[in-house]
Amino acid sequence: MQLYNFFNSSTSYRVRIAMALKGLDYTHQGINLRQGEQSSADYVALNPAKSVPLLVEDDGRSLSQSLAIIQYLDDRFPSVRLIPDDIELKARVLEVAYLIACDMHPVNNLRILGHLTKELEVTDQQKADWYKRWIGEGCAALESLLCRAGSGIYCFGDTPTLADCCLVPQVANALRFGCDLSGYPRMMAVYEHCLQHSVFKKAAPSEQPDYVD
Ligand SMILES: N[C@@H](CCC(=O)N[C@@H](CS)C(=O)NCC(=O)O)C(=O)O
Fold first, then answer.
1. Which DSSP letter does residue 183 get?
2. Class of domain 2-80
3. Which atom of ligand 1 is nearest to the CA of 8?
């Protein structure tokens, strides 16, 4: 399998965590978002959504959308489950994952921030305010959901799930943008715990072949 991804992309990071938790090997194909490689003709032919990640199987079949990729891998390699079978738990895991993937990430995606500065000509301060506003809304909701879920070491109990695959990259991204996350202790406890896990470390941006400081 090949994973087209970018070291600093949070959606790529989700899939890298999932693959590491499942012990799946892949060939890293770097797509440099800073240089706009997601919009190159060759890449758009592979992924019309002009985004990473993209999983390409050895027979050439490809799949985009990080959550679809993780669900596919979870069905195909079920020995380590990231989306639980239990109906109630599965719903809760998806609730957290979708909060991050559908509500938080899209409004602060690279293309949105780029549109704010290039077309709408907002200042750097206004862009930072935009980013922090949506992170604050999302984290407040996330903190409530996690507190409701109990006090396990991961989002849900003692086993990592899809929710953790989404939480860690989103928190890392928010910290990179200078957000104050001290008001979300349960979320930060999960984040800090995950960072100690060797498998989560392997998936970190700094461990990727295309990493630049
Ligand atoms: N919903 C998609 C979003 C993918 C996405 O937009 N990824 C970002 C990186 S985190 C990207 O490639 N952005 C490129 C851009 O905005 O031009 C997923 O979960 O895979």
1. T
2. alpha beta
3. 10
Task: List the one residue out of 205, 200, 199, 188 whose CA is nearest residue 153.
Answer: 188
* 160 touches 21 (CB < 8 A): yes
Q: Which among 104, 81, 105 has a CA at the least distance from the CA of 93?
A: 81
Q: Which CATH number fits domain 87-199: 3.40.1350.10, 1.10.10.410, 1.20.1050.10, 3.40.30.10?
A: 1.20.1050.10
Nearest CA residue ID for atom 6, ligand 1 = 51
pLDDT tens per residue across span 20-70: 999 999 999 999 999 999 999 999 999 999 999 999 999 999 999 999 999
Tokens 């090997």: give the residue. 25
Between the CA of 105 and the centroid of ligand 1 the distance, in Å, is 9
Q: What are phi and psi for residue 29, nearest 5 degrees?
A: -115, 110
SS3 of 64, please? strand
Give one word for 36, left, alpha or beta, with left for phi > 0 and alpha for psi -120 to 50.
left
